[in-house]
Each structure stands twice: as C-alpha cells, then as structure tokens.
Amino acid sequence: MPPTLEEVAKLAGVSRSTVSRVINQHPSVRPEVRERVWAVIRETGYQPHAAARSLATRRTRVIGLIIPQAVTTLFTDPYFPILIRGVADACNSFQYHLMLSLFSQGQAGNSSARQDELYQQVLRGQYLDGVLISSAPLDDPIFRRLLQDGIPFVVVGRYPHERIHYVDVDNVNGARMAVEHLLRLGHERIATITGPLNMCAGQDRLEGYRQALTSRGLAVDEKLIAEGDFTEQGGRMAMQRLLPQRPTAVFAASDVMAIGAIKVIRDAGLRVPDDIAVVGFDDIPLASVVEPPLTTIRQPIDQLGSMAVKLLIGLIENPEGSTVHRVVLPTELVIRASCGIRAK
Amino acid sequence: MPPTLEEVAKLAGVSRSTVSRVINQHPSVRPEVRERVWAVIRETGYQPHAAARSLATRRTRVIGLIIPQAVTTLFTDPYFPILIRGVADACNSFQYHLMLSLFSQGQAGNSSARQDELYQQVLRGQYLDGVLISSAPLDDPIFRRLLQDGIPFVVVGRYPHERIHYVDVDNVNGARMAVEHLLRLGHERIATITGPLNMCAGQDRLEGYRQALTSRGLAVDEKLIAEGDFTEQGGRMAMQRLLPQRPTAVFAASDVMAIGAIKVIRDAGLRVPDDIAVVGFDDIPLASVVEPPLTTIRQPIDQLGSMAVKLLIGLIENPEGSTVHRVVLPTELVIRASCGIRAK
DNA sequence: CTGTTAGCGCATTCAA
DNA sequence: TTGAATGCGCTAACAG
Question: Does nucleic acid strand D have an atom less than 7 angstroms from the CB of B289?
C-alpha cells in the first residue's frame, strides 16, 4: 500500500493541508516546514493518488486523441504514427497524459452503438479534460455532441464551423504549389488523384488543384479527376481510370497513392517521369527512397500534433477565452525526380 | 453540471445504494425498481464519474501501452501502428481504455529524469491498472521497477525472466524458415542483416539464422552478419558492408531493412533475385507491392497486441494466479519474387 | 431486497 | 502560516 497524504503529514508532524500545500507549490508554507515535508515525501516515495485528486479538483490532466474511423488506411499511412508522436511529445512536455481512442470500424459489435457507448464513458464520465479529433468525416456526429456537452476540443484538420478550434496545414496552397510546379514544367494535361472527398483534406487539395489551373486560365477537365482514399490500392485504381485520358502529369493527394499510381503507370509500359510526371503530397520518409524519388509537398505533421495539444491545453486551462483559435501551418514543395527534374 | 448518483436516487425515489446496484448489475434489485431507476438514468443522461468510482474501487479500467524508446525508427516502421490498433481494438472489446506513454528520446529535458517522473506519476499515482511494455531494450530499468511495485504488466516481445509474462511471435523459427528456404533454393553464402542486438527480437532472429545454417552442417561466417537497426537506412548501410563478401542471398530481419538492402544491391549494378536473393521479415503491407515483391516472414502483429491485452486484463482481474503466462504466436513463410521463385 | 453508514485520498474553504 | 472541517461522487459492509 502506497503512503497517503495523511501518513506523510503524520510523519512530518504537520496537518494534511500543509502537505497538500507543499505538493501543490502553494507559497504560504514556511521554508523549513516545506523542506521537512519534502524530506518525508522523498523518503516515503509518496505520490498523490490520481483519482482522489481528480475527484477533488475536477481535473484529470488527461487528454484524448480520438480517431473516429480508424480503418486500416490510417495504419498503413505513416501520417498517423507521426501525428501520434507529435501529440505524445507535447503531452509529455506539458505534464499531461494521453488517452488514445480508436473507434475502429468492423470490430465486434455494432460500430455506431459502440462508439456511442465509448463516448458516454470517456467523455461524460469525466475521464478527459479535453480531446483532439483527427480524421473525422465532416459529418461525424461527434462534433455536435462535444459542442453540446461543452467539452474542450481541437480538431486536427480544418473544420468549417465558426465555434470550432482547429489546426491544419495549408492544403489548398500545398496542392496549388504542386500543380503550379507541373505547369511550369510545361504540362497541360494534368490529372489528379484526390483523397476521400468527405474529408476536408481531400476537398482542399482538390481545390488547390483547381485554383492552380484556373488561375492560369486553364479549364478543369472533370475526366482528369479521380477520387482515391489515401491508400496505395486506391491510388492504383484511380490511376487505372485516369490512364485512358492520357494525362502527361498526375498530382496525387498523398505519397502513398502516388506510389500506387507509379506502379500502374509502369505496368502500362510507360515511364515516370518521362511519359507521365508524378507529384505526391506528405513527404513521408519513403518518398525520398522510392524509385524515382518523389516530388511532393511536405507538411509538418508532428508540429500539427504538438500545436493541437498546445491549443487544447490553452482551452482547458483558460476557459474564459472566447476567441476561436485557428492555426494553419505552411506546406512546402520538395522537388525530386518524379516530376522530371533531376534535382537533389 | 452532470447529474450524480444522489440526484438519480432522489428522482427514482430510492437510495444511492440501489442506483449503484443497478449501475453495477448487482442481481438483488427488484425488477420493477431496476426498471424505474434505468428510466431515470436514461432521462437524465446520468454517467458515473470515473474518478469517484476509481477512488472507491481502486480500479481505473485504464491500461497503459508504454514504449520506452520511441525513437523515430518506430514510427517509420508500420509495426507500431498495427500493434497499437490491435491493442486498441482489444481494449475496446473489454471495455478498458488505453493510455499511450511514449518515452521519446531527445525531447526537451533530460530524458531519463523525465522518464522517471512519468513513471512516478502514471504508475505510482495509480492512473493505470496495468501496463503493456513494447520495444524496450533488455536492460531497461522499468522491468525491475514494475516487479518491485507489484504492477501487473505484460511484455510484448520475449523477456527472459522467470516472473515476467509476455507474448511474442516465434522469431527464432521464423528466421529459421526464411534461411532454410534460401538453403533449399541452393544458396550457401547467405548473409544476414540483424535487428538491434540489444533487443530480443534482434537476437532471436539472428539465432534462427544460425540454427538454420548449423543444422545443415554449415559453418556460420561472422563476416556475413551485419547489425542493422530496423530502419531503411540501417538496412542500406549494413548491405554496403556485406556486399564485398559476395553473398548470394541475404536474410534481413525486417522488411524495411530488406527494402534498403535491395536498393543498395541494385545501385551496385546487381539484380534481385538473380544475383542476390533477399528475404525479409514482418510482411508489412508494402512488402507485396515493392519491386520485386518481397519474400518474407509474416507475423500476426495485431494478434500480438490483442493477446497481450487479454493476458494483462487476466492478471488485473485475477491477481491470485501465480502461473507465468507466455504466449508465442506462430510465424509463416510468404514466398514472393525477391528470393528467386516467381510464386504468387 | 433495500437503506444507512462509513470511508476512498485529496483540495479547499474558514478560523485561528 | 497553519490546522480543522467539509465535500468531491461513488462503492461496500452491515443492518434491517
């Protein structure tokens, strides 16, 4: 049995309140008393009981990272692990703890009922001081519920609602830069493999593609747009649909899809970048080592995670603030070989 | 303010105890009363307060997944995300929650002091009912502390200590199958790129390599062994050291390293599998889509995760059991093109 | 089967 | 600056 406040107090010859003050850095404790108490704390290895403290303070110092549709996709894409690491690191440095809730699909039991149950337990049960939401479809009911229950939360990825805080990378601009680069190289039949269009990132990258073309005075040919799902296989299938359209370049909304596309292009007997140039999005570690190295848009995923944590903790610790926080991190064009320039 | 037990009791015209019994499925409550209480619970949206409950029961229903050395490595390898998913799914189905603790290196602040602090807070603070440890080096101090503090834990990966519970895949046999396959194909100069040798998986796969050779009566040539670190770059560097030895085949202890090795082999003007055959380990999703598709050893990573959770919850809920649990899941040879057989 | 009582370990008034 | 008292919301042992 670990020692309690009570026992520490007795050993130090003071009251529980005093020990509590020492633990919580309250200033009004005589230095000598404080030192004596600390000594006992060290000797006994006393550690405050988290549940007891939470019950008294109504705070847990735990935040949740919720990923509503944790399908396989997310776990073959390196995006996630990196995001998780960014979030975890930030939690560590703020002395918060991280609870991971994956509402996977297709596991035992009705998924939406399950999800509901989890929501009830974790959020209404006051397990968490706040939550981060990532990769939720725009119409996920969780947003409404969180607003309704008044739970502090930050969305990773843009969310078009005036009361919702989010952090995102500049997907529109990133996509635009990618396509503009292809335009500069002289391409005119540029196709795109989009992300899932029920997600903001998917929509925004498509929007960037459109903007690049129209601001050049080019028409957008809908036949050159194929929807993917951020998976390698999705990329392959989309590319297969695009091939008959004879594009000279393709902008894929993720590196993983770009890799799939390259495979299909080659299987068709064409060369990258000579016959079809390819640009991806993400700059995952693999991007620089595949053949040919991928020209892509780099996004600072771990910063996204740590920034989200920072915002969330701000909301938790300063609930009065009524400003809605929105952070958009910049993206960057990384030129490699897959677009036709032998750079780097 | 969410409703409390007290309020529900008042509304239902019963005592708190009765409501508590209803919530906890205690049998001795008259059906009609039970129904009345449930009605109030539904109407009010009552949810038990997690901290209050934990304080009373000494249980949190939260388990931790601790990864002591969460270096970048772990996050470029798909192993992790899959493990996490397996763990998360199992938690969901047992109605437990998952806390993720990454003790990353090189973050702000002295790493080992930080780690200590985290340990104190999370484990001695009774946040967790038990923990899973993954990817810890064999000499990590955490094992001793957990034993000492009497905290239920299960290691993901074999751990050679008589009182420690673990789950693992059969690394020795897997590696052995890989090398035996190469032997069957007629290779005799088989090199290996190992994992980090301070981790059990690294050691065991090397042991499998040795066993395959010696049981064929072949000598083990230490010059054909190069230590890697499970990263793509590590694989490349190891392969560079091996090339001068002129192996005709290489067994890499992870797919990611195998991919790096293939790159080096090709850059040297050699062909895979014609000049050098390659076999990997893991069967990550990428393995089947790289060029050439990778012959490899498949390990059931998500089962590893869910099995670990199952064991851990067993330990938590039945502390009396004094048997030490050890589960070793089978591995499987998956033949593709990189070893010289155009199968699949 | 049900209500009463007594903690679980801590933070936080309020007096002193 | 310190201590005594109170309550956070729940479970569990004991009576009835």
Answer: no
